[in-house]
């Protein structure tokens, strides 16, 4: 493909183009492997994670509270965790006014780059606990491997991801999640005599801008004292 594309430019426009260089970049997308509705580990039907983009970190803070006493708090996080669902995502029924230009969509690609930071309830957290939080975020985003889970909005999915972390990880006090929308637009293939088939298209162009800035902080409710 890259060879024929490169030849096309110099052959179709020889009066203005005598040299062309085309570079195609392949990005690694791996199917998320998680449990299906029967509890068996399987490759996911329509959810993926992109390799090589994620970074993880830990933050420790020490505060001298009194002579000889040090209070230590520990947080951890991740950024650049790119995930994608090819179906089971919608955005419709939202509030509109005279300036709304975004159309409602019953089914779409849902792609985002997850950044999350959480505060531990104790200062002795382990890498296994951090891995557990990451696994929950991915698992709730994707849903069961065989069926997935409907997402009526990125905001809803983000909330469910954070809620699940607090429900399943008693060692987490609060979590902040940032999930910008990475829109994927169907490519117009008519100039090539091709149809971008399927009602939702098969070839998409990811765009960085514009995008919605979607983030939330979920905090565990302190236990009441009698």
TrEMBL record:
GO terms for biological process: purine nucleobase catabolic process; urate catabolic process. It comes from the Eukaryota. Coiled coil: none annotated. The keyword Oxidoreductase applies. One of its GO terms (cellular component) is peroxisome. The keyword Oxidoreductase applies. It catalyses: urate + O2 + H2O = 5-hydroxyisourate + H2O2. Keywords: Oxidoreductase, Purine metabolism. Pathway: Purine metabolism; urate degradation; (S)-allantoin from urate: step 1/3. Its EC number is 1.7.3.3. Pfam families: Uricase. GO terms for molecular function: urate oxidase activity. It is an enzyme of class 1 (oxidoreductase). InterPro entries: Uricase, Uricase_CS. NCBIfam families: urate_oxi. PANTHER family: URICASE (PTHR42874). Belongs to the uricase family. Catalyzes the oxidation of uric acid to 5-hydroxyisourate, which is further processed to form (S)-allantoin. This is Uricase. It comes from Aphanomyces stellatus.
